[in-house]
Amino acid sequence: MKKLSFAMVAILVSSQVAIADTALSGTEIRKFLSGATIVFEDGEQKWQSNGKTVAIFFSSQGREVVNGTWKVEGNKLCESFPNTGRQCMNVVVLTGGDVRFIPGNGNHYTGSKIK
To answer: Which residues form the signal peptide (predicted)?
Structure first.
């Protein structure tokens, strides 16, 4: 029984290490997003290296394009859009390569980097 318990603990510990997500530092955020496009369930967003960003959303009412700006402050991505204002968030690369944006409001947004 002790051997079985030890084996189960070893499996759990190794699986937890294998599924570790990576929170990006400010430098890593800048490098990861500059020139990148992330595809979300309801649209996509492009981050240009000049600090501009374009978000495209699809809904039952059609396609909406929103232009904004982005910069890195400390270890957070900060974006400003005319319709939502300024918001700063953590950026986490998930196991498997998806990326999650986590603002302070309790929501999160997950997408896939395509370039």
So the answer is: 1-20
Residue 19 makes CB contacts below 8 A (sequence gap 6+) with 95
Q: What are the residue ranges spanned by the domains of the chain?
A: 21-113
User: Do 101 and 88 touch, CB atoms closer than 8 A?
Assistant: no
At residue 11, the 3 state secondary structure works out as: helix
pTM of this prediction?
A: 0.79
- Return the CATH fold of 21-113: Lipocalin (2.40.128)
First CA to last CA across the chain, in angstroms?
A: 50
CB 41 within 8 A of CB 108: no
Is the pLDDT at 5 greater than 70? The verdict is: no
CA distance 108 to 102: 5
